Every structure is written in structure tokens, then in C-alpha cells.
């Protein structure tokens, strides 16, 4: 596959910014040194994701799913190519500006929940508000966190610590935490991998409802067919390359 020329890269990014897509990758590649070898984790990836979409990134282990999520989430930088995120060419941002953009605009949901065990559900959801929106009064953060825990069906359990909650409840706390900062994008890394069928279905239902109610874009990485069957757009990665971009019910 030929690399994207700088002129074409600029033109594609300009169109993406005018269209106000959430994120667009143009010719993105990323490699890592592993001993005496080089691992090409991503190879010339170009893809656009619009506002309000639900997108599943799938493929075999080692296909580049986590690396792609890190690019979309502004956690890592590509070796080649460009990324436009919410009307900004990421290349123009300093590390501090990238961190601020990530903290204010992107919520993260993890396979292992990543809740702080000594904090209650309410305190876990309050934490990003207090860290990312410094100066917010505790009473305001508490009210916002309690509102989101109510929306995910945990209003009566907000004082419980994670070890008193089921896996599905902990993942709902994590979703509330991701949404509490009012992001434009939520990135979920294998969000149903550690859940049984009932809890997996409940979490998928919740994310679909939040997508419809708030308009926030959801991007997942997953091996879970239960999730793939419910998410309308699929990006298939193989050996670091985009091998498919299809939508349910379209025959693509």
C-alpha cells in the first residue's frame, strides 16, 4: 500500500475538519522495537469516525487494536501519518495541550474496570471531575457523579466500594465515570470481556442507551461476538492493516 503524500494528507485533513468528524486518521503507521526486530503494529491506517457513531474495532490478538485505540485516544503518537481530532490537527498540539484535550474530551472504560478499591462508587466517579476540572467544588462534583450513577442504575449503591459490587455493576460505575466529564468520545477496551452473558447484555444495552441519549461517540475494541452483533459499524484489523470497514445490515 502506498503512503499518503503530504499534499493529499493535508487535503484529507482539511475536509475532515470542515466535516467536524470526531476523529480522522490519515496514513497512520506505528512501529515498536522488540529486541532485535521491529514490530509494525499499524500500517497506513486511514479511517474517519463521525459524531454519535458506535464503532467496534476487532481482529485477532496482535492485530493492532490496542495501538489503534491509543492513537484515537491521543495516548500515543504515530510514526507517520496524521490525526484530526475534534477540529484540531493533533500535530499542532503540545504535549500539555494533548493531555488537556484528552482529559476534557475523552472518557475511558477498561476491561478490568480500573476502579480505586478504597473509594466508593460515588468517589470513583467524582475523581476525574476533581482532577480534570480543578477548582470544582466537592458538592458540585458529588451532584454530577450521583446523577450519572443514577442514570446507569446504581443510585442506591453509590456508597458501596468496588469489592461489594458485581462485575457488571463495576463496569457501570466505570461507564458513569467516563461520561461524567461530558466527553465527546468514549473509548472502551474490551468492555465486556470479564462479564457473563447477562451482565454483558446489560452493559451493551447501557452503552447503546447512553449513545442515543447523549450523542457521545463510542469506540470499542473487542473479541466479543455479543458486542459485535449489537454495534452497527465494524473495523477489522489484520496484521496492523485495516482489512474491513462495514456496517451491520449493509452487506459490506
Characterise this structure.
There is one protein chain. The chain has 252 residues and is α/β, with parallel strands linked by helices. It is 38% helix and 26% strand. The chain has eight helices and ten strands. It has helices spanning 6-19, 65-72, 95-105, 121-132, 138-151, 167-180, 197-214, 225-228, and strands at 23-34, 37-49, 54-58, 80-85, 88-89, 106-109, 185-189, 217-221, 233-238, 241-247. It has a six-stranded mixed sheet, sandwiched between helices. A four-stranded antiparallel sheet has the order 2-1-4-5, with helices on both faces. Helix 4 crosses helix 5, helix 4 packs parallel to helix 6 (167-180) and helix 6 packs parallel to helix 7. The longest helix has 18 residues, at 197-214. The chain is globular and about 50 Å long. It starts with 5 loop residues before the first helix and ends in a 5-residue tail after the last strand. The model has no long low-confidence stretch (mean pLDDT 89).
Main sheet overview:
6 strands, mixed
Structural class: alpha/beta
State the helix count.
Answer: 8
Percent in strands: 25-35%
Order of helices and strands: HEEEHEEHEHHHEHEHEE
> Mean of residue pLDDT?
89
How would you describe the oligomerization state of the chains in this entry?
A: single chain
Helix content: 25-40%
Strand order in the largest sheet: 6-7-8-3-9-10
| Outline type | globular
Strands, total number:
10
Radius of gyration, in Å, reads 18 Å
Low-pLDDT residue spans:
none
Amino acid at each position: 500500500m502506498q503512503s499518503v503524500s503530504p499534499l493529499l494528507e493535508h487535503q484529507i485533513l482539511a475536509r475532515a475538519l470542515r466535516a467536524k468528524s470526531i476523529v480522522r486518521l490519515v496514513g497512520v503507521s506505528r512501529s515498536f522495537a522488540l529486541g532485535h526486530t521491529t514490530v509494525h503494529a499499524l500500517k497506513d491506517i486511514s479511517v474517519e469516525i463521525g459524531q454519535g457513531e458506535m464503532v467496534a474495532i476487532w481482529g485477532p490478538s496482535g492485530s493492532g487494536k490496542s495501538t489503534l485505540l491509543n492513537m484515537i485516544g491521543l495516548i500515543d503518537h504515530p510514526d507517520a501519518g496524521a490525526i484530526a481530532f475534534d477540529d484540531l490537527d493533533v500535530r499542532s498540539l503540545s504535549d500539555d495541550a494533548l493531555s488537556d484535550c484528552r482529559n476534557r474530551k475523552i472518557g475511558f472504560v477498561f476491561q478490568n474496570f480500573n476502579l480505586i478499591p478504597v473509594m466508593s462508587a460515588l468517589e470513583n466517579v467524582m475523581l476525574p471531575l476533581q482532577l480534570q476540572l480543578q477548582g470544582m467544588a466537592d458538592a458540585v462534583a458529588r451532584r454530577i457523579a450521583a446523577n450519572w450513577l443514577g442514570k446507569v442504575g446504581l443510585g442506591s449503591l453509590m456508597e458501596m466500594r468496588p469489592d461489594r459490587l458485581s462485575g457488571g455493576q463495576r463496569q457501570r460505575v466505570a461507564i458513569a465515570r467516563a461520561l461524567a466529564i461530558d466527553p465527546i468520545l468514549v473509548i472502551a477496551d474490551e468492555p465486556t470481556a470479564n462479564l457473563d452473558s447477562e451482565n454483558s447484555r446489560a452493559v451493551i444495552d447501557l452503552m447503546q442507551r447512553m449513545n442515543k441519549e447523549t450523542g457521545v461517540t463510542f469506540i470499542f475494541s473487542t473479541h466479543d461476538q455479543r458486542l459485535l452483533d449489537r454495534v452497527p459499524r465494524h473495523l477489522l484489523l489484520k496484521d496492523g492493516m485495516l482489512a474491513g470497514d462495514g456496517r451491520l445490515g449493509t452487506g459490506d
